Amino acid sequence: MTAYDTVVVGTDGSKSSFAAVERAALVAAACGAKLVVLCAYRPLGRSESAVAQDVLRDEAYHVMGSAPAEETLRTAREKAAVAGVIDVDAIAVEGDPVPNLLKAARKRGAGLIVVGNRGLNTLAGRILGSVPAEVARKADVDVLIVHTT
After folding, report:
1. Longest Cα pair distance anywhere in the chain, in angstroms?
2. Deepest in the core among 6, 18, 128, 131, taking most CB within 10 A?
3. Phi, psi of 108 (to 5 degrees)
4. pLDDT digits (tens, 9 = 90+) for 9-64
5. How far is CA 2 from the centre of its chain?
6. Could you read off the pLDDT of 63-96 as tens digits, one per residue?
7. What is the 3-state secondary structure (H, E, C) of the chain?
8. Which phi and psi angles does 10 have, rounded to 5°?
9. Does pLDDT of 100 surpass 60?
10. How far are the Cα atoms of 15, 17, 143 from residue 117, in angstroms, in the given order?
11. b/e string for 73-112 if b means 16 or more Cβ within 10 A?
């Protein structure tokens, strides 16, 4: 097996997704690879944001738009630096995480996509689909599903 040149990891700002970022950073550092950190978001209007904040409380970071995505990426860059990664691209993209992770991996020639296992063994994940399961099914490169929960 050859070392990876580029590693792509997704984060949504949750504690478990940052665990995946940390693992991806360790792999990238060990391989001397570029780390691409992706945060997908959906912009919301002011009234939608207020409703989401009220209903979702601690989980609202999933849907709150690009400002939290930029903060999430700043934190991810810090975690990558601590792990010793020198070359980090952090990108916020509007839309769903799975197609954007796959697109980023193809576009950047990544050999590995890293995701956390959150949602993999939940009822909602089984009914609606989970990011790690869908990435594993659709990716044409290696996928590392990190046990984060």
Report:
1. 51
2. 131
3. -100, 5
4. 999 888 888 999 999 999 999 999 999 999 998 776 666 556 556 655 555 555 45
5. 24
6. 455 668 889 999 999 999 999 999 999 999 998 8
7. CCCCCEEEEECCCCHHHHHHHHHHHHHHHHHCCEEEEEEEECCCCHHHHHHHHHHHHHHHHHCCCHHHHHHHHHHHHHHHHHHCCCCEEEEEEECCHHHHHHHHHHHHCCCEEEEECCCCCCHHHHHHCCHHHHHHHHCCCEEEEECCC
8. -105, 145
9. yes
10. 12, 9, 11
11. bebbbebbeebebeebebebbeeebbebbbebbeeeebbb
The residue type at 39:
C
Let me know: does 148 contact 17? Beta carbons within 8 Å: yes
